[in-house]
Amino acid sequence: MKLSFLSVASLLFGALSRAAPVLEDRNAALAYIPEEPELVPRTLPELPRLVIYFQTTHDASTGQPISMLPLITEKNIALTHLIVCTFHINLGGVVHLNDFPPNDPRFYTLWNETRIMKDAGVKVMGMVGGAAPGSFDTTTLDAAAGSADFELYYGQLRDTIHTFGLQGMDLDVEQRMSQRGITRLVQRLRADFGPDFIITLAPVGSALMQGSNISGFDYSALEDSSGDDIRFYNAQFYNGFGSMATPRDYETVIDKHGWDPKKILAGQVTNPANGGSWVPFDQLNATIKSLRSKYGEIGGIMGWEYFNSEPGGTEEPWRWARNMTSILRPNDVPRLAITAATAARLTRAWKDSLLAKYGGALGSIVDKILPDVDYLSMVNA
């Protein structure tokens, strides 16, 4: 029997006030992730990259976790990087993933599914910063040289990367930060995580053209000093900071300002509701074809963000990635074997995410609730 969330809500009415808390051990967020991968990770070609940010983790109307697995189980999708976001550094507090610590049980599904993404060859990264201020303040990650503040908050970020097995970190600096501060952060990440760790930045497109720059520091100077440590740039060609409606802005970045096209991704909003300068598929396709013809290859395409990506919207957000695959890399689709044990673990994690939200009020009802993602149907090994 599969219960809808409306029926669950009616069963819960009146019970939530007396519900006992469950899953008090916050470190249990990793409880169902095996210590070793069950499968040999797939290897995908590096270029061109297809990157998507995964910020909205739960459906706003139902509270159900949003699955990222259609990005590898639906046909004809060749995602290369998934960026879990947004991590926030909080003065006087601890790192949060959006509004909660990343080991909160509501993220059971998220962290269990990232392991499957890795098995499919997708690089799973984090992103710190974004529009909310605080992560790069002079009291946190941009603290003075030798400051205990930097060591404290950088240490929190470093430990988060270790704990959740992130394969890289995207530095989305949307507040003023010093040149010294960003250089130090890149250098510390490289020193602590080694040559295979992926370090990226997310400048607005105009910042690569010596125009409007919301980060404060000079990206060209950073590339000159630390370019060997930075894998690529998720350039935001939207919200008035550039456009991919034509090749012009991207060409300006490369031809007039000397950037390597293989390091610059054409960042796009995946839905007009996610920001300005949204470009329809056919128009974007024409732009990308023109750029690849001119430069031989480009860094790829980045999308902000997954949950409501068009043309499928919230029902089928993976269709955006399928469309981008058809532009970039139609012959590089990964194949993944999912076992019954993996499907069972994912189903259990999904239910425990609900228990974290609704507490003991669910009681035995939880055994009758099935995820809106049918993990068992994915079993093929």
TrEMBL record:
Signal peptide: 1-19
Top-level taxon of origin: Eukaryota
Single GO biological process annotation from the record: carbohydrate metabolic process
Organism encoding this protein: Diplogelasinospora grovesii
Protein name (Swiss-Prot/TrEMBL): GH18 endo-N-acetyl-beta-D-glucosaminidase endo T
GH18 domain segment(s): 48-331
Family matches, as Gene3D superfamilies: Glycosidases (3.20.20.80)
InterPro entries: GH (IPR017853), Glyco_hydro18_cat (IPR001223)
This protein's record includes keyword Signal: yes
Matches recorded under PROSITE patterns: GH18_2
Keywords: Signal
The keyword Transport belongs to this UniProt entry's keyword annotation: no
